[in-house]
From TrEMBL:
Residue positions binding pyridoxal 5'-phosphate: G353, A354, F380, D465, E466, V467, Q468, T523
Pathway info: Amino-acid biosynthesis; L-arginine biosynthesis; N(2)-acetyl-L-ornithine from L-glutamate: step 2/4; Amino-acid biosynthesis; L-arginine biosynthesis; N(2)-acetyl-L-ornithine from L-glutamate: step 4/4
This protein's record includes keyword ATP-binding: yes
Residues binding substrate, per UniProt: G41, G42, R63, N156
Cofactor(s) annotated in UniProt: pyridoxal 5'-phosphate
Complex formation: Homodimer.
EC class: transferase
Protein name: Multifunctional fusion protein
Primary location group: cytoplasm
Alphabetical list of HAMAP family matching this protein: ArgB (MF_00082), ArgD_aminotrans_3 (MF_01107)
Gene giving rise to this polypeptide: argB
Catalytic activity: N(2)-acetyl-L-ornithine + 2-oxoglutarate = N-acetyl-L-glutamate 5-semialdehyde + L-glutamate; N-acetyl-L-glutamate + ATP = N-acetyl-L-glutamyl 5-phosphate + ADP
Coiled-coil blocks: none
Length: 644
């Protein structure tokens, strides 16, 4: 694939472009690069408005645009500046084609704030296919930053913003802002490299001001997985020689590393976290999000809860790790808290949900002397060989066979199927009280009752996987406590350590003699730092008042969501238990998720059609209201955009 470079040519330098600007473009083009130009023209527009005695003012670096101003903006940008630039490029033998963002709906726009800014637009979509077609024919598109909406209303778009949006849409490998200075200047010298953090500091210190602010903001917004860096260079002096660019390079430090040495096992969001506290996550661009992911049901007390932080810090000052050859008081204390708040009697500590389930499955086979394990379709139990074999989703185990023998996946909530499969060969039945990853699907009370009854009848062990549903998530210490059942084994992880990795398998007293010394173990299991975090976490979450509030907030949230989303055909069902909530939609939600993030709320999926909401349990009612508002507004926006 050819490398594409998007070059934004600033109004400040248009009349002052040095021959080196054009020879640099020639060199890039001749080396086989695709070149796209987006131009500004602020000073020219200003001059014309003055000549016509039309008043205009800048609000946050953007020109307030009345109908009258808009006419002048379009006339200058698309009518004059664009054509002049195209003509100049052609003089240098470069095949430039002038287009405005209106042509072929290249820049689809929406108003930023009609009242405050008039017809100033933000880019909601770019016709990247059209740009790609021009590039395939080796043309150099020269784009004026005018956009339109579906009704044909035109908008004045800041040229830096337009260039950033185009670069992102066509997955350009390089974005250059050509302006009248040789980069970001500090004390007269060019800052060669600037990270997002450094830029924030320079704005706060008053080093970056005026027209440089929208430029650096557009640069930061454009950084993505395909665009690791953006440059600010001068149009008055050579900026490109022997494949080398001169100016300021802006990069998201971590973004640069994203393509580095990690196996790409995750479909990561383009959000790089800088800090997190309570219910708020802040990214490296300074954007704040209300976090309804909670590290996937992990940070149940919000981020960096002070009591947990204090407990961890204190333990850090005592000792970090000694091994399970020693007596560790904190393990005893956390185990006490777990058994006091469940029907279990003994605890085995490990480091993750999968390991907790692995321990449960090993215990079940060893205790019963049987092999067969029944689990359910759409379940998720982990990614080790045993837990992958237990998981009822093909996408998890496909390609890893042969799996462990004698794992059977039955339809969820199907009593008949269970009755048919149960026998004296079954070692265990393992079930999630609410299937989390599989789509936020609660188990029926009668179904759970039947599992308990049949396990007793056939001497099989009843395992509940509470990795996601446990630790207060549903308003009880463990979700099975909503029902009149007593499992033999409960597994826990995720929320147990508030973000410090820890898992636990809790079993009934009669299982004690099966897990004796040397039968099972883990180097890190029950690590003192993890235990300190777990103790502080459970001491708060297992308080009856705290759990009561979780239940109330869960009921409130579910009711508010059901009420607010009932008008949308897209939404099929809103369901959940406590603060584990799913919104099932009639179609894939892949597009909706980033749009909700963009509007400041972090949510995740559970399967292709379900939006999963996992607010921290400390969430306030106002924050729940805010989340409902954002979700509703985003569905509306996406629906409107799709109708265009
Ligand atoms: N730290 C900085 N380094 C360089 N230029 C800066 C800085 N802070 C503010 N500026 C101003 O930003 C201007 C470039 O922005 P602008 O005039 O909007 O250019 P353009 O028309 O190319 O978009 C520079 O001419 C300079 O006056
Ligand atoms: C909304 C807004 O402010 N639009 C700009 C468009 C031109 C532009 O951005 O030109 P520069 O590159 O010279 O800054 C304006 O009216 O001036
Ligand atoms: C119900 C359930 N079980 C097990 C696991 C696996 O936990 P871990 O990723 O900590 O191994 C998960 C993780 O999402 C889960 O939701």
């Amino acid at each position: 694939m050819e490398k594409t470079v998007v070059i934004k040519c600033g109004g400040s330098v248009l009349s002052d472009l040095s021959p080196s600007f054009f020879t640099s473009l020639q060199a890039m083009y001749e080396q086989g690069m695709n070149v796209v130009l987006v131009h500004g023209g602020g000073p020219e527009i200003g001059k014309m408005l003055e000549r016509l005695h039309v008043h205009s003012e800048f609000v946050n670096g953007l020109r307030k645009t009345t109908k009258e101003v808009l006419e002048v903006v379009e006339m200058i940008l698309a009518g004059k500046v664009n054509k002049q630039l195209v003509a100049l490029l052609q003089q240098y033998g470069l095949p430039a084609v002038g287009v405005s963002g209106v042509d072929a709906c290249l820049l689809q726009a929406a108003p930023i704030d009609l009242e405050k800014l008039g017809y100033v637009g933000k880019v909601v979509n770019v016709n990247g296919v059209f740009v790609d077609k021009l590039l395939q024919s080796r043309y150099i598109p020269v784009i004026s930053p005018i956009g339109t909406d579906k009704d044909g209303q035109k908008y004045n778009i800041n040229a830096d913003t337009a260039a950033g949006a185009v670069a992102k849409a066509i997955k350009a490998a390089q974005l250059l802002f050509v302006t009248d200075v040789p980069g970001i200047l500090r004390d007269g010298a060019v800052v060669e490299q600037a990270t997002i953090d450094a830029i924030e500091r320079m704005i706060n210190e008053g080093v970056i001001t005026g027209g440089m602010i929208p430029k650096v903001k557009a640069a930061i917004a454009a950084l993505s997985e395909s665009l690791h860096e953006v440059m600010i260079v001068s149009g008055k002096a050579p900026f490109y020689e022997n494949g080398q660019l001169y100016g300021t390079t802006i990069r998201n430090e971590v973004g640069g590393l994203l393509m580095g040495a990690l196996f790409p096992t995750y479909n990561r969001w383009n959000i790089c976290v800088k800090s997190a506290e309570g219910t708020t996550v802040t990214d490296t661009n300074g954007k704040q999000y209300l976090d309804f992911v909670s590290g996937i049901a992990v940070c149940n007390l919000g981020h960096r809860h002070p009591a947990v932080q204090k407990a961890i810090e204190e333990q850090l000052n005592r000792f970090w790790h000694v091994s399970n050859l020693f007596t560790i008081e904190l393990q005893e204390e956390v185990a006490e808290l777990l058994v006091a708040n469940s029907c279990g009697d003994y605890v085995f500590f490990c480091n993750s949900g999968a390991e907790a389930n692995e321990a449960a499955l090993k215990l079940a086979r060893k205790h019963t002397g049987r092999h067969k394990v029944i689990t359910f379709r759409q379940s998720f139990h982990g990614r080790t060989f045993a837990t992958m074999s237990a998981t009822g989703q093909e996408k998890v185990y496909k390609g890893f066979g042969p799996l462990l023998p004698e794992f059977v996946h039955l339809p969820f909530n199907d009593i008949k199927a269970l009755e048919n499969e149960m026998s004296e060969d079954v070692a265990a039945v393992m079930v999630e009280i609410v299937q989390g990853e599989g789509g936020v699907r609660p188990a029926d009370a009668a179904f759970l009752q039947k599992i308990a009854e049949l396990c007793k009848q056939y001497g099989a062990l009843f395992i509940v996987d509470e990795v996601q549903t446990g630790i207060g998530r549903t308003g009880k210490p463990f979700a099975y406590q909503h029902f009149a059942i007593e499992p033999d084994i409960i597994t826990s992880a995720k929320g147990l350590g508030s973000g410090i990795p820890v898992g636990a398998m809790i079993g009934k007293a009669f299982l004690k003699d099966t897990f004796t010394a040397g039968v099972h173990g883990s180097t890190f299991g029950g690590n003192p730092i993890a235990m300190a975090a777990a103790k502080a976490t459970l001491q708060i979450i297992f308080q009856p008042d705290f759990l009561q509030e979780v239940q109330e907030k869960g009921d409130y949230f579910l009711a508010r969501l059901q009420e607010a989303l009932s008008e949308f055909k897209l939404v099929k069902e809103v369901r959940g238990l406590g603060l584990l909530v799913g919104i099932e939609c009639g179609e894939d939600v892949a597009k909706l998720i980033p749009a909700i993030h963009e509007n400041g709320l972090l949510v995740l999926t559970a399967g292709p059609n379900v939006i999963r909401l996992l607010p921290p349990l400390i969430v306030s009612k106002e924050e729940l209201d805010q989340a409902v508002k954002v979700i509703k507004q985003t569905i509306q926006e996406v629906k409107t955009a799709a109708a265009k």
